[in-house]
């Protein structure tokens, strides 16, 4: 039914576009709309012309007008800084803006020639299927089948056809279509399954175009992978899609075209992903967009091998194996001598002796590595409603440590953090902070105030809004010092210093709830730190945040660590763990399955697999090479591969940066000489390679 | 294909087969789930009016017993769960009887014989009868309300409202979607409570401190709730909710003999209660001659 079309060149690099089969029809069952048929030759399915959005709450127009076209059978990946209004653009495609959402539309959006200003979502919903970021906010019924049927029922599809469509959509996303599976409550599905359910709901409408607005932002890495496997399957059937995403490792390889927006929502670059990620590094850095990890790895290793930009770690590894990458990129010194068999260290009641060069012991770290542990769990068991959430967990956190806690959803990560903070009653065992038992509930209050008593513990919650208890930023900061009984002057001085340091002085009298998300995050960290805690607990601090915010937060964490604070963080982002943390604890169904230096855990695929986790990109890259060259067997940090600034042409020099110094402080100065300090047995350079 | 576009469908819900697959979990196992939710509701309302208006404690007492019996027979609950609830309800009603008898004004018992004596406490038969009447009314109305919802799922009620009572589906569905908010709010409130405890903002005892705590939680809870509601509403619109004046119903309520049978049974029970209830129950009711 679709007219033959030639895709107009979407950019200067269109010649390199992987050819999209012209016969690839959009999702089946979407014949052209009589009357709205754009007619033969008029290419795009969706056309945005100078689109701007004005949210009623904000009152100002976002951006300067975006032009974007979406051709049949094409998957377009839209990148841009937060605040550029990407989500707003997504909402214009099916007419939710201006018809449903409290926002105005400027410019025009045409869906198969239909103007969305005059045609509402009621009609466009069969043309454009949407998947939003939050899986919870898309569920309206109590069973999986009802959920998928909801859309077709609304559009008066006959009942028998409704269920046929629903079952087909569920099969397409890989959800159970057995009677028990259909009857499941969506709330009982995992986050990843719920998001695939949301995708099935969109597919059941048989749309011509899918619009996916950060569909994996709330998912853990394995769920992200599964989601994109499903989307890859749909792509093979010729689905047309507009994808807004900043986790690019799985998304970028699927894209036919990447479109980069700048802060003013104008299209600054577009083309096939290899072109955009390979050539527009500076632009991407400027707009704060993520890049695929493979691109970052490749950048640290020198010029892109063979002129093509790899999009996945595996692809890059194969390129390196094919020897199209200069030998100088071989990592060095990744097998710490003091760590024989360090990888087999699960369930240690105490962390293994740290290698002499682990981050916690680098010379600039606060002293006290031999001191009493800052936090300690002694065989802690937590039961809630008959379920064992934590099962006999024992671990010790030495001063100055940065312990990351990872595991699947429901593994007990947050409970572990809450136990340390005294927010969860312990059934058995004991939690200690700075040698004193942590007390919960009324007993703790009587014994000396709130759980973060005497400012010993700072806690940064996943949603910063949850922890605001006063009406202004200044009062919010003064709250902790006031509870500590500090004097008026001391409190004032601390508050002013914190306002200044966190860039919040302008907002001192504003309500915390009226800050932007990034400012809320900064304030929540500031309130946790203002009492000068010895222990800082972070719960998913980077979840759903863009690169700039993540970098900002990590810089803060590194800073407080340098000042002597011990950090325990729950996170899904294992690359972040690899690059910043010193130790990693894995939880699986409430049990501690590993607690050891980060490298030992991340380089043990069996441990990660058992915990239901996916190795981070650098490790996936190195593991693929390690099968052929053991030199790579303990590489998992970006810094193992050299630093981006260090590449100075084709000198051919190895860039052997000590793998265990995650940052520059105290580390060796340059790329050379860092590796010879202890005369390690690891190969020192590329000369050893065949 | 787009052949199934709206426009040509006749008035009323689009017909569809009853689909057992993917049905929500049924409430209970007995015959009550086969009775139309609106029929159950209507019958219960009529019976409640009778129980309230009757001046003889035997009538509400009879309706109370009948409602409990129908409820048990119609949902076949697990005895381990039903028996403790029944025992508790029975004790409560006995306590109510004595309590309201004591609270009755002196004129109610005046001229009637003393039925109970305990130390300085004398309960006249009239007062006891009054207490039994109030307790039986309370019990009957409570039991009949429970019976009205027994065996009804939210989906069943929604379908009945839309297909039988012609309630606009937007209203019925929005109410059902509201049910999904409950667990979301509960989790959110739990997080906020923990965060506020961590900040030391949960101190103090007594109602004043509790009110302060609640007020502090209200802002983030409302902010989060409004955001969530907006998102849900956009997601529903994106799937065509409200696009047409009606929507396909996959589970059309089937007209079975269960509905008329339930009504006839209810009539029989009401008739028995008002005519022979007194004779049947007066020997066991306190204060009834």
Automatic annotation (TrEMBL), chain A:
Domain ABC transporter positions:
46-289, 375-614
**UniProt keyword list:** ATP-binding, Nucleotide-binding, Transport
> What's the domain of life for this entry?
Bacteria
User: Where are the compositionally biased (Pro residues) regions?
Assistant: 1-11
> In what ranges is there compositional bias, type Low complexity?
12-46
User: Where in the sequence does UniProt note compositional bias of the Basic and acidic residues kind?
Assistant: 664-690
What's the family?
Belongs to the ABC transporter superfamily.
The name this protein goes by in its record:
ABC transporter ATP-binding protein
Provenance organism = Streptomyces cacaoi
From TrEMBL, chain B:
Q: Which residue ranges have biased composition labelled Low complexity?
A: 1-11
Instruction: Describe its membrane topology.
Output: Multi-pass membrane protein
Stretches the record annotates as Disordered:
1-27
Mind naming one GO cellular-component term on file for this protein? plasma membrane
Question: Which keywords appear in this protein's UniProt record, sorted alphabetically?
Answer: Cell membrane, Membrane, Transmembrane, Transmembrane helix
Enumerate the subcellular locations listed in this protein's record, separating them with semicolons. Answer: Membrane
InterPro entries tied to this protein? ABC/ECF_trnsptr_transmembrane, ECF_transporter_component
Entry's Pfam families? CbiQ (PF02361)
The residue ranges crossing the membrane are 85-106, 126-148, 261-281
Q: Which domain of life is it from?
A: Bacteria
**What is the name listed in the Swiss-Prot or TrEMBL entry for this protein?**
Energy-coupling factor transporter transmembrane protein EcfT
Protein's organism: Streptomyces cacaoi
